[in-house]
Design a protein that fits this description.
The protein is 31% helix and 31% strand. It contains eight helices and eleven strands. Strands 3-2-1-4-5-11-10 form a seven-stranded mixed beta sheet, with helices on both faces.
Length: 268
């Protein structure tokens, strides 16, 4: 298996390759962002105008633009140059400003160089499971955040939406009525795992998912000096039906959350 630096380099290459495809499909109207990740993130951030926010692994800037519309001044980072180029092309005038930069979230020193105690909040939208090594990131965030600052992240729910889960539909003849039960089968959870996958159907090349159980994921944050003070598990409402296949999350899985959103604060 590749070491961490090699895995990180391969991940950057994959996202540079996928950038144009991703940018054409990921915007403020995408259901995972619009209904799951962003509303909870906005609640947990509780931003005030003119606050300084660091947006980590910003991709094509969908979350950065949402932050700027709230009046935040945003420093947005991604290690894929093509993603940053796409984000800059989509930039819109708003009450807040966005500074896009190419920077690797696994480079602790580069993150610290952004400024000690500079940011009121940091955000990572649906990307923490794409980052090869979280220890440098968590360590750096404890330094760049203001003492009362927070780190909010959304991600694929590691319990129900990891590389080893299978979405299922089973038909039962229940007293003459054909009833379909939709469920998720989990075959692997406790062991950390790297596995290639597609975030969207027909994505040009797979990227790597870095699965971590909650104890490992949050343990990295706790060891760095964070505490968890809010958490939301997000599932699609029953009335929302869509997606590209019958097994899309926004189809029949209203009782199973595919997205986890957490807020971390510095321990006092």
């Amino acid at each position: 298996m590749d070491n961490v630096s090699e895995a990180n380099a391969r991940q950057a290459q994959a996202w540079n390759t996928n950038a144009e495809f991703w940018d054409a499909r990921m915007d403020e109207s995408h259901d995972f962002f619009r209904l799951l990740a962003w509303p909870a993130s906005e609640r947990l951030l509780a931003l005030k105008p003119d606050q300084q926010v660091l947006d980590i692994a910003c991709g094509n800037g969908v979350s950065s633009r949402a932050l700027a519309r709230l009046g935040a001044n945003v420093l947005a980072l991604d290690f894929a140059e093509n993603m940053i180029e796409a984000a800059r092309r989509r930039e819109q005038p708003g009450p807040g400003v966005i500074d896009y930069r190419v920077l690797d979230a696994t480079d602790e020193q580069a993150l610290c160089n952004l400024g000690e105690g500079r940011f009121d909040a940091t955000l990572c939208t649906m990307a923490l499971m794409d980052i090869a090594d979280l220890d440098p990131l968590m360590a750096a965030l404890t330094r760049v955040l203001k003492p009362a600052g927070c780190f909010v992240f959304s991600m694929l729910h590691p319990c129900f939406n990891n590389p080893s889960t299978i979405q299922m539909g089973e038909i039962e003849d229940r007293d003459g009525d054909l009833v379909t039960t939709w469920s998720v089968k989990v075959s692997r959870y406790m062991t950390t795992e790297r596995r290639g996958g597609l975030a969207m159907p027909d994505q040009p090349v797979p990227h790597t998912y870095f699965h971590r159980p909650l104890s490992k994921l949050l343990g990295i944050a706790f060891n760095a000096g964070f505490v968890l003070d809010a958490m939301e598990e997000q599932a699609f409402p029953p009335e929302n039906r869509g997606g590209s296949t019958i097994f899309s999350w926004n189809g029949h899985f209203a009782e199973i959350p595919p997205v986890l959103v957490c807020r971390l604060r510095l321990a006092r």
